[in-house]
User: Fold these one by one.
Assistant:
Number 1:
Amino acid sequence: MSPEYTKPVPVPQPESDHYWEQAKSGKLVFQKCSDCDSVQFYPRILCVACSSRSLDWIESSGKGTLFTFAIAHVPPHPGFREDLPYITAIVELEQGVKMPSQVIGIEPDPDLLHIGMPLEVVFEEISESISLPKFRPAE
Ligand SMILES: [Zn+2]
């Protein structure tokens, strides 16, 4: 990890190892239940809808829309102070799953953001094993 990266770093769990491996190679994946067809994020060992353990990994197109957002003006951790203000968001992927992330590549101005705006994933490499999915405005 680069010494200047001062934010908290995700700690992969057994159920999320595949997710982080895919993210490292530039692919965004989520889980789909083969028993009830529900999709879910974050990775879990059980389907949150029916408790099945029959979960498949689905590769996202990386495209989605802004479901909701907030502009952070107070850092949740000292490592985020230099980024203020920034956009936290829930992004709804094309396949229907929603995930928390950040929107980058646009000023954190509520007049520039609108619910439903198209977004696409980009990955920020923060260490040798972790790349974080973030989203930027798409055409
Ligand atoms: Zn299910």
Number 2:
Amino acid sequence: MIIVFVGAPGSGKGTHARRTAERCGLRHVSTGDLLRDAVERKTDVGLRAKEYMDAGKLVPDEVMMDLVSELLDSREGGDGVVFDGFPRTLAQAEGLDRLLAERGLKVDKAMLVDISEDEAVERMALRISCPKCGAVYNLKSNPPGVEGVCDKCGGKLEVRSDDREETVRDRFKEFRRQTQPVIDYYRDRGILASVRTSGPVDEVARKVAAALDGCGDAGGTSEGA
Ligand SMILES: [Zn+2]
């Protein structure tokens, strides 16, 4: 079972990808984790990726494909994967299909977690985080116990530069430009499911589960990965 999660910044895609992986017994793989892990393990491809990251550049598609290829071969935790934030471009989507086909696998479902630009801005504006330990709070749905102070480590909370309105709008437009072709690609193949991300997170999670028909396979039965 291979499921791909697609969603703009602020959509909560990461949360729902993680919850889906847990629920369905699949590996959760985010692009960030994949990169960090390869860099830490100092694999050849990890060292190549690090050069780009150190230079503040986007890691190119061919390096991403090598990372995913390594991941698919490692088989740690089984064949089933929930991809979170990958593929981000049409070239990556086509590359992923090639890598999967070589291994007798395919993308079973693509899950679009959909949000409007204004909603994303509103949501991100409510996010504050701890620069010390990385904890993230939401002023409305998950506020810290003491205003401006991290519950976990006592650090001073702040709005990340990534979450400021102008940055969110820029990231949103970049997401649309790069990722709309990916969404169309999966829609044309008839494997795109889509959920509007509004309302409480548990409610959205239920909608995601329903849209995936359990864990995403046509029969609605779980493979147990
Ligand atoms: Zn903290």
